[in-house]
Amino acid sequence: MDLPRKLGILIVMIVPGFVIGGALWSVMHSWIAVWIWEILVAIGCGYFLFGRKSSGGKA
User: Fold this and answer.
1) Total number of domains in the chain
2) 9 touches 45 (CB < 8 A)
3) Is residue 43 one of the residues assigned to a domain?
4) Cβ contacts of 45 within 8 Å, gap of 6 or more
5) Is residue 3 part of a domain?
6) Is residue 57 part of a domain?
7) Are 49 and 1 in contact (CB under 8 A)?
8) pTM here?
9) What confidence category does residue 59 fall into, taking pLDDT thresholds of 50, 70 and 90?
């Protein structure tokens, strides 16, 4: 995967992290809930960036 695509995925994953993290804080007033969400987003982002080694090979 090339660098511009990786940066695009990072930007797309940051937006739900901020929005849903803010919504969690607004509803629960708990930093623990926000940190759990941010860790889940980071794991998902890492999966998309580094987890898939073969994204369709060239024949």
Assistant:
1) 1
2) yes
3) yes
4) 9, 10, 13
5) no
6) no
7) yes
8) 0.74
9) very low
Report the C-alpha gap between 54 and 38 in whole angstroms: 27
How far CA 47 is from CA of 16, 26, 34, 35, 55, in Å, comes to: 16, 28, 20, 18, 12
Q: Which has the minimum average pLDDT: 19-23, 30-34, 36-40, 54-58?
A: 54-58
Q: In this structure, what token pair is assigned to residue 43?
A: 């794991």
Does residue 40 form part of some domain?
yes
3-state SS string for 1-53: CCHHHHHHHHHHHHHHHHHHHHHHHHHHCCHHHHHHHHHHHHHHHHHHHHHCC
- The range of the structural domain enclosing residue 21 comes to 8-47
